[in-house]
Design a protein that fits this description.
Rossmann fold, alpha/beta, ATP-binding, binds adenosine-5'-diphosphate, nucleotide-binding, binds magnesium ion
């Protein structure tokens, strides 16, 4: 059991306040979705949770299991069980996908319990096949020359290999055709358990037909303005953010 807790979070980027008091609790066993218009701060929230240095926390706190993240490096956050699938995964030359994943897994394990080459390869083959990915992708440099869809699939492969406690998935559905969307969703659904929680950021309701969330949050103007169940996403799809703005009397 693990809990990610975001408390009155205010974040500035280049001196401009983007997040204006976000509150959120994600427990293992739960899938949360955050929806919201472009530019509202969804990626800012995900990058801040993971510890990207460009995002300055000016007020509030983020905790994992009551440990304050503010003093923790990106590596320490990963070791504590957090994982971020980025909206725009970076390409890294000179490190193969497989090497990257093995290092990431071992960084989270104690010295005397490192994953061996054989068990690593077995696990990799199993997950890769589950996601219908070619064997050759594992040996390519990280994300280099991958199409948008391949990058997203690869983020899910990493997640399945690393087995985080809480995964933040930033627009894993963007740019995917329907087949790739199904594969990516299959990966997330396969992870669903009492030991795994996710915060999925998406623009579109479509993803939530495949990964049915327990909670849906709407972010506007740097705050979560409404929380509901899966039905909230359907309502948004029908009425748009404008409908919600009117309903809540918001001016953002
Ligand atoms: P969303 O993911 O909801 O579309 P973002 O968090 O990406 O929104 O962006 C929110 C706002 O913060 C935007 O105005 C964006 O331009 C700004 N912003 C986010 N990240 C950066 C950054 N690294 N440098 C400068 N501005 C940024
Ligand atoms: Mg965006
Ligand atoms: Mg974004």
């Amino acid at each position: 059991m693990a809990t990610l807790k975001v408390e009155n979070l205010h974040v500035s980027v280049e001196g401009k306040e983007i997040l204006k008091g976000v509150n959120l609790i994600v427990n293992t066993g739960e899938i949360h979705a955050i929806m919201g218009p472009n530019g509202t701060g969804k990626s800012t929230l995900s990058q801040t949770i993971m510890g990207h240095p460009a995002y300055e926390v000016t007020e509030g706190h983020i905790y994992i299991d009551n440990q304050d993240l503010s003093e923790m490096s990106v590596d320490q956050r990963a070791r504590a069980g957090l994982f971020l699938a980025m909206q725009y995964p970076s390409e890294i030359q000179g490190v193969t996908n497989a090497e990257f994943m093995r290092a990431a897994i071992n960084a989270r394990r104690p010295e005397d319990d490192q994953i061996g080459v054989m068990s690593f390869i077995e696990k990799l083959d199993e997950k890769r096949e589950f996601l219908s990915m070619s064997e050759e992708m594992a040996e390519r440099y990280l994300n280099e020359g991958f199409s948008g869809g391949e990058k997203k699939r690869n983020e899910i492969l990493q997640m399945m290999m690393i087995e985080p406690k809480i995964a933040i998935l930033d627009e894993i559905d963007s740019g995917l055709d329907i087949d790739a969307l199904k594969v990516v969703s299959r990966g997330v659904n396969e992870m669903r358990s009492n030991e795994f929680g996710a915060l999925m950021i998406t623009h579109y309701q479509r993803l939530l037909d495949y990964i049915v969330p327990d909670f849906v949050h709407v972010m506007m103007g740097g705050k979560i303005v409404k929380t509901g169940g899966a039905e909230l996403a359907k309502k948004l799809e029908a009425e748009g953010y404008a409908g919600l703005r009117d309903e809540l009397g918001l001016n953002v």
